[in-house]
Amino acid sequence: MSWLCCASSEDGICSGTQEGNTMIIGYTGSAPINEVKGEVRLVEVKLDLSLGSNVGVAFDVQDKSHPVVKEVFGGLLEMWNSSCLPEQEVKVFDRLVEVDGKSGSKMDLCDRLSEQKDAMTGTMVLKFARPKEKKVTLKKKEGKDFGVTLNYYKSSMKVIIAGVEPNGITADWNEQHPDTPVLADDVIVEVNGVSGSPIKMVSELKKSEEPELTVLQY
């Protein structure tokens, strides 16, 4: 079976405090507002900046368009998560899409977040997109490739599907399962129970005769 896998040892960094491949920023808050737009749920969180500037979130910024939550730790966001309803928590793989009602590029959002958290007064509103989760089982076939291009950073927690070829096993899945297709820009976060390391997930995907994938779609 053949693939095209592109791995990078360097991870993109938003402006701000850098630690490894992440950006450390800082939460507080009143009740969030949950919206549903199509298949993607939006979670809104209001932060009271008078309570502190440590939002307590690390972003894995491998994605081209938006920062994605890699870890929630300490700070005001962890306090929120410990007291809110489960569906209102900000979770790993949630994608930051707005800061104070303004969207923009990945760098725009990170810069705006850094600027606003240092204000120390007022309220900052963050909006996150919660991805749709799909379960996919691919069966190897003699003479057929998986038919996907995969990109990943070695220190990330996910594998990005950069492209799907028309004649591979993945395309066969898409034809047979039109409600849960695997698409370009989808993200693989687990393969046969293996998660956390893109290198281990890709290795498991290559050696398995019938890999079971957990795929996220934003």
Detail the topology: elements first, then pairings.
Blueprint: E1 4-8, E2 17-19, E3 22-25, E4 30-37, E5 40-48, E6 57-60, E7 68-72, H1 75-83, E8 95-99, H2 106-117, E9 123-130, E10 132-137, E11 148-153, E12 159-164, H3 169-176, E13 187-191, E14 194-195, H4 198-207, E15 212-217
Parallel strand pairs: 1-11
Antiparallel strand pairs: 2-3, 3-6, 4-5, 5-9, 6-7, 8-9, 10-15, 11-12, 12-13, 13-14, 13-15
Protein described:
- The chain has 218 residues and is α+β, with helices and mostly antiparallel strands.
- It is 18% helix and 38% strand.
- The protein has four helices and 15 strands.
- It has helices at 75-83, 106-117, 169-176, 198-207, and strands spanning 4-8, 17-19, 22-25, 30-37, 40-48, 57-60, 68-72, 95-99, 123-130, 132-137, 148-153, 159-164, 187-191, 194-195, 212-217.
- Strands 1, 10, 11, 12, 13, 14 and 15 form a seven-stranded mixed sheet that branches. A four-stranded antiparallel sheet has the order 2-3-6-7, with helices on one face. It has a four-stranded antiparallel sheet with strand order 4-5-9-8, covered by helices on one side.
- Strand 4 (30-37) and strand 5 form a beta hairpin.
- Residues 1-33 have low confidence and may be disordered.
Q: Round the Cα radius of gyration to an integer and report it.
A: 18 Å
Round the mean pLDDT to the nearest integer and report it: 80
Q: Would you report the number of β strands?
A: 15
- Structural classification: alpha+beta
Largest sheet: 7 strands, mixed
Helix content: 10-25%
Number of helices: 4
Please state roughly what percent of the residues sit in beta strands, choosing from under 5%, 5-15%, 15-25%, 25-35%, 35-45% or over 45%: 35-45%
Strand and helix order? EEEEEEEHEHEEEEHEEHE
Overall geometric form = elongated
List segments where confidence is low: pLDDT < 50 over at least 5 consecutive residues: 1-33
Q: Report the end-to-end length measured between terminal Cα atoms.
A: 28 Å
